[in-house]
Amino acid sequence: MTTPLIKAQAALETLQATRGNAFYPLYHLAPPAGWMNDPNGLIYHNGLYHAFYQHHPFDENWGPMHWGHATSRDMVRWEHQPIALAPGNEWDRDGCFSGSAVDDNGVLSLIYTGHIWLEGAGNDSAIRQVQCLATSEDGVHFTKQGVILTPPPGIMHFRDPKVWQQDGNWWMVLGARDQHDRGKVLLYRGNSLREWRLDRILTEADAGMGYMWECPDFFPLGNSQILMFSPQGIPAQGLKYQNLFQSGYLRGRWQPGEAFRLCQPFEEMDHGHDFYAPQSFVAADGRRIVMGWMDMWESPMPSKGEGWAGCLSLPREVCIMPNGKLYQNPVHELATLRTHEQLVLPCVLDKLNQRLLPDAQAVELEIAWECGQSTAERYGIRLGQGCELFVDAQARRLVLSRSYQDERLCGDRSVPLSENGDLHLRIFIDRSSIEVFVNQGEYCLSSRLYPRSGERQLELFASHGKALCRGGTLWQLNSL
Ligand code: FRU
Predict the structure, then answer these.
(1) pLDDT tier at 360 (50, 70, 90 boundaries)?
(2) Contact 36, 274 (CB under 8 A)
(3) Of ligand 1's atoms, which has the minimum distance to the CA of residue 38?
(4) 183: burial class by Cβ within 10 Å (0-12, 13-18, 19+)?
(5) Which among 80, 98, 306, 469 could bridge 20 via Cys, Cβ 3.0 to 4.6 Å?
(6) What lines the ligand 1 site, CB under 6 Å?
(7) Which of 56, 111, 129, 215 to mutate to test the pocket of ligand 1 (most atoms within 8 A of CB)?
(8) What residues does each domain of the chain span?
(9) Taking the model in full, what pTM does it have?
(10) How confident is the model at residue 1 (pLDDT cuts 50, 70, 90)?
(11) Which ligand 1 atom is the nearest neighbour of the CA of 97?
């Protein structure tokens, strides 16, 4: 008998044979072919990092969700593994939706949402979602164990379990939408991975804060407790919440058995065009790492023309600063990708652009760049014709601007400059992405880029005045 998993793997291999390359990342995790969205089940287990992800192996569009799987020794170089979960049982017939992984007494265990359309695919108002378990002895092949938790009365959207162990109990946060279209996070307590009871509603949306909260994660960081989640339905407010859907965090205090006491209102995790559904995990040495889906629902994805869509962000180490802000920095393991190093000497930028690399060679790069005094109205870095990262002196903001033929891919995202005017940037460029870490992790902007071939010139520019570039370093990266 051909099982759904065997069928899915065969379809993926056929699709992979035809996958195109121009946009396929060289050091970010993307599906071998087909579609990817949320990271799932991020975990360090038995000496390996595992990244599972929402995956459709039959084509480049979202469809019945499978769990793709990759492993890594360093969070940087990933190796694809066989598909871990395929839908097809009565409780997950139409999709194995997002979830998490834990080590249950040495057994790698996946907790995911089984999804069923009750009245035809795509009808969001008639669905059934339950939480399910799958286990593995070898970390590669998973056996489904069935349903472990059904929704409370009146809740239909009930998904994305994040599970952890603390003080002798299992804990689970779940994203939910209630009858009044109010997003919330439910907290469950478990005696085992199979027996759960509702502890409390951890928190829920105030007016304007979303009709559904997806992909919650709840973890300690310094003296704080962070609730990270991805709300749907927050309207843009001035320069905030510019993307269709957000991802962000609430900072508070929490102990098992207590209420979550909020210290700080909702803050966005990332200020670029493409970042959603982030999840965290603990690295081998105890660092808290976050990875997100570096795309946005309903955005055009030109890589679909190459038979694939979706990639994950770089892994970022997160920490809480004394002012309560969450900082994010690329993991230090990324430095092992650096090969050729080129210094950018201090210089004054004016009307003449300074080319940083010979023509069209900006493909896999890390750039560290220090900006100084400026009289220019705008100055920054340009990649090809479609992407500029610049300081807007009048608005006092750092802007990541995208302009491509497809209007839906165009637009600016920005963050404020610091009071003292310091600006230190770390920029990672891959074949179809840019990630910008500002001032040692104070802000982060992640966006997908789609330069056409021959349009990968990288240059510094300034307009209407002069800008001092204090210098920097540029590294070619090599993922092999
Ligand atoms: C978030 C999400 C999750 C769901 C999954 C389905 O991007 O909508 O809530 O489990 O994607 O693919």
Answers:
(1) low
(2) no
(3) 7
(4) buried
(5) 306
(6) 37-38, 54, 65, 97-98, 113, 159-160, 214-215, 276-277
(7) 215
(8) 3-330, 336-477
(9) 0.97
(10) low
(11) 10
Residue (of 90, 21, 10) closest to 431 by Cα position: 21
Instruction: Name the pLDDT band for 480 (thresholds 50, 70, 90).
Output: low
Kindly report, residue by residue over 167-218, the tens digit of the pLDDT. 999 999 999 999 999 999 999 999 999 999 999 999 999 989 999 999 999 9
Residue type, 26: L
Sign of CA dihedral 197, 203, 208, 213: negative
Confidence of residue 130 (pLDDT cuts 50, 70, 90): very high
Tell me which residues are annotated as active site: 38
- Ligand 1 atom with the shortest distance to the CA of 212: 9
CA distances from 260 to 226, 377, 460 (A): 10, 45, 47
Per DSSP, the residues of 198-231 read EEEEEEEPPTTS-SEEEEEEEEEETTEEEEEEEE
Topology, domain 336-477: Jelly Rolls (2.60.120)
CB atoms within 10 A of CB 162: 27
CA of 97 to the centre of ligand 1 (A): 6
* Class of the CATH domain delimited by 3-330: mainly beta
pLDDT band at 282 (very low <50, low <70, confident <90, very high): very high
Distance 214 CA to ligand 1 centre (A): 7
3-state percent helix, strand, coil for the chain, nearest multiple of 5: 5, 55, 40
Q: Which among 343, 334, 369 has a CA at the least distance from the CA of 478?
A: 334
CA atoms within 13 A on the CB side of 309: 22
CA 315 to chain centre: 9
Quote ipTM for the complex.
0.99
Q: What is the dihedral of CA 82, 48, 109, 161, to 10 degrees?
A: -90
Cα–Cα–Cα angle for 199, 186, 56, rounded to 5 degrees: 135
- Rounded average pLDDT over 223-248: 96
Average pLDDT, the chain: 95
